[in-house]
Amino acid sequence: MFYREAGQFKTSYAADMAVFPLRQDRIGLAAIIAVAYAVAFTGSDFLLQAVLIPFLIFALAAIGLNLLTGYAGLLSLGTGAFMGVGAYACYKLTTAFPGVNFVVWVLVSGLFSAGIGVFFGLPSLRIKGFYLAVATLAAQFFLQWCFNRVPWLYNYNVSGAIDAPLRTLFGVPIVGPTATSQTRYLVVLTLVILLTWVASNLVHGRIGRMWMAIRDMDIAAELMGIKLLQSKLLAFAVSSYYCGVAGAMMVFFWYGGAEYNVFDINQSFIVLFMIIIGGLGSLIGSFFGAALIFMLPIALGIILPAILDPFGLSIGSDTIEHLRFIILGALIIFFLIVEPHGLARLWQIGKQKLRVWPFPY
Amino acid sequence: MASEAAVRRPGIEPRMVAWLFAALGVAALVVILAIAARTGAIGRGNLVYDVVVDPFVLMAQAPDLLVQTLWEGLVSGVLYALIALGFVLIFKASGVFNFAQGIMVVFAALTLVGLHEKGVPALVALVLAVGVMLVLAIAVERVVLRPLVNQPDIILFMATFGLTYFLIGLGELIFGGNPKQMIARQLYLPQGATDAAIFGGRVRFQHIDIAAAAIASLMIATLAVFFSKTRIGRALRAVADSHKAALSVGISLNQIWVIVWFTAGIVALVTGIMWGARSDVSFALQIIALKALPVLILGGFTSIPGAIVGGLIIGVGEKIGEFYWGPLLGGGIESWLAYMIALLFLLYRPQGLFGEKIIERV
Amino acid sequence: MSFMKLKLGAAAAVLIGASVLPAAAQDSIYVPLLTYRTGPFAGSGIPIADGMHDYLRMLNERDGGIGGVKIAIEECETGYDTKKGVECYESIKGKNPAVVNPYSTGITLQLIPKAAVDKIPMLSMAYGLSPSADGNIFPWIFNPPVTYWDGASVFIKHAAEKEGGLDKLKGKKIGLIHLDAPYGKEPIPLLEALAKDLGFELKLYPVTAQDMQNQGSLWLSIRRDRPDWLYLQGWGAMNPTAVKEAVKAGFPMNKMVGVWWAGGDDDARGGGAEAKGYKSLDFHAVGADFGVIKDIQKHVVDKGLSKFPKEKLGENLYNRGVYNSMLIAEAVRTAQQITGKKAVNGEDVRKGLEALNITEARLKELGMEGFAAPVKVSCEDHNGHHKVFVAEWDGTKWQKASDWIEPLKDKVRPLIEAGAKDYAEKNTGWPKRSESCAKQS
Predict the structure, then answer these.
(1) pLDDT along chain A (361 residues), means of 10
(2) Chain B, 92-121: which have a CB under 8 Å from a chain A CB?
(3) Is the Cβ pair C181, A165 closer than 8 Å?
(4) What pTM, to 2 d.p., does this model score?
(5) Is residue A8 in some structural domain?
(6) Residue C253 and residue C272: Cα distance in Å, rounded?
(7) Can you name the CATH fold of B62-348?
């Protein structure tokens, strides 16, 4: 009833080919963005710092991996390492040139990550599928070793850890212990919205279609005239760029510091799970997956004690930790059985049903 | 004279000539470097010397350490091969790349140790652990494999990811997270070590390592016989070739899958006992299982002898590389050396040493 | 569609719940414990967590809390992971904690800059950043009774004593097997400085967290290098594996000394009977034969309020946790004395920590006579650089094998002050100390 195209006439080709053709979609998107900015002023510190900022950062990393695995079909297990490259690059840049605006360095650090991604993506021309996953595993372990054993990367700190120095934007601190969660959230939100918009344009355009052709059957794509080398390397570059920016944001806007084992293989797995559950090949799926995988442990930590406390049963923090793993594993299997295309497909089905509501079909 | 031109004499093929030239070139290089090192033209501190000459000099200077390193590499190679064996079994029969093999190793070992802690005698605990792996195989087949029967491989691969995390959580919940000691003595596994005087130095052979190598060889031989001689083994190979054809001949896919996961479970249990006897049983073993991936790359995903050969190459290569070339790079290169070796291999021979050549059709 | 509703409803519930956190009850003192009972470090983390929890619980049960105010104990699982540690800190920050115990040097390093901003004192007992002993630069960080640099200097002193004098160390090889993490790298600056002074060669043997149980190559290198003494700065699964490998490689166990965190009972047991002679530093006694342990047994363990098995009471790491909680309780009590408030908050406990003075008589009152040495903290010296002793594993348990040894304070303190100044310079905008010096009233 509400979600219909009736009355919306397109008078130009551009309007016809828009990504969100329905006005309701555009209104909904604007509303979500408005609410997101409003939460910065109404939300509690805990909500911003521990829930929304990491959710946005992981959503960006998930978009990065989704571009590579979901759209281009190249399985990658090196996400953690690429995030690390971005973080360490940002650290070196900002400690070497502290005067330059920090946001500029965040965006530039992604380029380093893209370069490394292209280098480790070169084998993708000869190998595919699981074998490519092993190649990216080589990247993951090698880069993690570099973060630890190349002292230049962490400015020869004795502890081997990098930390976020004080940086300001228009006089307001955005990085460092004095930066409030509101300012950090606003910066992260703006960057994520911007980069999502770029990603959306990429996947709806010629490049995205090239990637999807490669994903479906790369030999046929090559026969059609798509240059495999350039497209696959571009996929690696763009994906690593997003992961690098996400990594830099993670260290500087969320944790405030990092060691080499922040970017370990588990980080790669977590982002992979996010896109599996969220939906391969879908931008909004990345957001859903990040929300579910990231907020699930927090929710469990709040809900489980809340349920059990009235009965006088106390649940140990370690049990909650174990239950997180169990529920996560079971959820993955459940989603793969019930809906292999993930939450994004459920969302699509939901929107379809909404279009014909109140009729059943 | 006309007949001469008609008959083409078998001559030296171009490829052989290329290999010959390559060998001569390497020999010449070795001679040049040896002369340079001997006369002192290049010495320690020179990059070429450090990378190409010095390690071999060190090897010659302390041959007992070389033997010890080789032995350590062989033993860890055998253990990697055991883990890879589990992968190969499942991949051969169901086409699923079972990422959960590592956690199955840990889970099996933990079950054994956990049962023993509760007071069950060791050998009974062993039988019970085998039973638990059977139950796990049946559960996995029922809950994970059957509903996903026609999905693309990547979905099944991801499902084993989910299985991994589920088993991690379940294992930690039931058995607790801290590392446990394997009940090697109660299982009549040998303890202690023998010292052998080799090349003027002392080389230590741990009895448990020798036992591990022996047991692994026995298991591989058994599996080879199982696959080629028994009815079930042939059925497994049939399923690996083509599911539809196997169904049409009357082989029950579900049964075969249970059997193959159960076999992989037993392999996992043996692996867990051997690994656990050398270093305690804990969830860190699960990450070590990732090392089996380079082994599979080298050996081929569907070949049992490939898993062994690949395991030995990776094990020895890793240890030698870490011990002699590691210090040049700052140490700790063991964490990624195996993957780099596998990566280089992939670029030249993607199907591995013994795997089936990958043919793609449009 | 109903699944969608369920998901939306759950998400809404979580968001609402997250934005309105229950505040700590006004009439209790909130003590969060950042512990780890899972993961590869759980072997070391579980006894400590239980020791800390049980002592505080005993105070609640026996005395009704501290000064009549109950202690609200909450554990947050970190898995010794820096990420999770920071997340735990963020979640407990808003609940008005009295003091934070990160129980990981890595997490401590991340939280040090936040402590001053959030006004929450940090007690990194015998771990953390060694230079944080300088109270002028780190007014909110405390690490009594001894730093890693003190410990390393005691190790050198002990090695020198066995070799026949500090001058006999010249030309010897001393190896540091350490976890490749901030914790493991802590003693390196001091050992390098002492190597330059005394003329011994320092060799570093790092072990990454993934390779903790796979130390084969490392011990091959040790065999090749043949160091005279080994100092083990390990934690978690690294310790029993190191001891086992040392036995396998035939290293003389009496020349291997572990820092106090490498002195767990399970750590030495990993080497079996041949690990006899393995030493570790310690600053409190082992065993259950103390009034405080007996009280814990009576009020907590016997009532089933503890997760720790009764037979293991008195183990080294369990007693460590008890000691830690004792410091917390005494700091809270001192804070109550200074400020006169009962339900003290972070700022008050900071004053309490700075004025901490646990005398021999007070230890006797606590039932800790012979268990620990007196602890005194001052405004400039947030550590005290107290004495430690060397314990030796006799095959079944730890025995005190030396007197209380004084660390090389004249070498350590200048380095600490230099290190603290260096830290403040590197972190631009580090606040100058503005808190007044707290004295016990």
Answers:
(1) 84 88 89 94 87 95 96 92 96 91 94 95 81 87 91 86 87 86 94 96 94 91 92 96 96 89 90 91 94 86 79 74 87 88 92 87 80
(2) 97
(3) no
(4) 0.89
(5) no
(6) 12
(7) ABC transporter involved in vitamin B12 uptake, BtuC (1.10.3470)
